[in-house]
Amino acid sequence: MRIIPNSEFIVNPDGSVFHLHIRPEQLSDKIVMMGDPDRVTLTASFFDSIECDVRSREFHTVTGMYKGKRLTALSHGIGTDNIDIVVTELDALANIDFHTRTVKPEFRQLTMIRVGTSGGMQPHCPIGSYVVSEKSIGFDGLLHYYAHSQNVREEDFEEAFQKQVNWSPYHCSPYVVSADEELVERIGYDMIRGVTISAIGFYGPQGRHVRLPLADPELNAKIESFRYSHYSITNYEMESSAIAGLGKMMGHKCMTVCAIIANRVALESNADYKGSIEDLIKVVLERI
Ligand SMILES: O=P(O)(O)O[C@H]1O[C@H](CO)[C@@H](O)[C@H]1O
Ligand SMILES: O=c1cc[nH]c(=O)[nH]1
């Protein structure tokens, strides 16, 4: 059996995992994730009791009880590079024996729901709506660093996307992954279902022109008009592809749902979205 070297999987002197700084017994099977550490404080304010509250860098983790369910709320910060850390460390907390540094014989499956904010790309995703990422398109390339990604990637969709938007060879090869179907049905049954792009930045990589001109100013228009079967691209955010992809490769159940806080076609945004995300968190806590 492979013993994972200290340099490849780092455990802190207090027995916690390197970045998240929590110990295996502090993790619940059901995890609600979000970019913003303060959103974890908000989520935990709905818990009936708190078991642990740990902060390390942008990672804020609270485990507690909500109406008889043991839940972990956790912030992952911004971007799929952080998701590589967070999903790997969550999986390790559940499935690696920290003492023997080996994979445990019994697999423990986690449920991870990301509750995020996002920019709508279609008129039917207005500000204030909730969009479940039935599929995600990763512009980040993270999945390509792991073996067997083709087992979870939807290559026909990827090919159609590259062709229709005339994808630049200077960008990473986009990957397409579906969320866990049962979660989409159970948690998102009354929400908009869509295809979400996880971009590698908020500005240029989402087609925002502030001062620097864009390499392809038409890319967002091509993304808006892209069609594959009955699918169109509904929204932009920055993490769902890596959560769906890594989670699926590891055998976990993952899904992202976002509150739309900007609409790129209507050229509108709402920076005062606290009420909308708060309501969405409450719905997810009930249904997870
Ligand atoms: O509101 P969160 O969960 O952070 O999600 C979105 O907001 C951030 C960008 O403002 C990115 O993380 C994006 O995915
Ligand atoms: O437009 C948006 C809004 C929130 N988060 C994003 O990544 N993009």
Describe what this molecule looks like in 3D.
α2 (80-95) packs parallel to α6. The relative contact order is 0.19. The chain has helices at residues 37-44, 80-95, 155-165, 181-187, 219-225, 240-250, 274-287, and strands at residues 30-34, 49-56, 59-66, 69-75, 96-97, 102-103, 111-120, 130-138, 175-178, 192-198, 233-237, 253-263, 268-269. The longest helix has 16 residues, at 80-95. The mean pLDDT is 97. It has 288 residues and is an alpha/beta fold. Strands 7-11-10-8-12 form a five-stranded mixed beta barrel, surrounded by four helices. It has a two-stranded antiparallel ribbon with strand order 5-6. The chain is built from seven helices and 13 strands. A hairpin with a 4-residue loop joins β12 (253-263) and β13 (268-269). Uracil binds next to β7, β11 and β12.
Which structural class do you get from the secondary structure elements?
alpha/beta
Bound molecules: 1-O-phosphono-alpha-D-ribofuranose, uracil
Distance between the termini: 35 Å
Unreliable sequence segments: none
Shape: globular
* Strand order of the biggest β-sheet: 7-11-10-8-12
**How many β strands by DSSP?**
13
Write the layout of secondary structure elements.
Layout: E1 30-34, H1 37-44, E2 49-56, E3 59-66, E4 69-75, H2 80-95, E5 96-97, E6 102-103, E7 111-120, E8 130-138, H3 155-165, E9 175-178, H4 181-187, E10 192-198, H5 219-225, E11 233-237, H6 240-250, E12 253-263, E13 268-269, H7 274-287
Parallel strand pairs: 1-4, 1-7, 7-12, 8-10, 10-11
Antiparallel strand pairs: 2-3, 3-4, 5-6, 7-11, 8-9, 8-12, 12-13
Bound molecules: 1-O-phosphono-alpha-D-ribofuranose (R1P) and uracil.
Residues 34-36, 78, 116-117, 202, 237-239 line the site of 1-O-phosphono-alpha-D-ribofuranose.
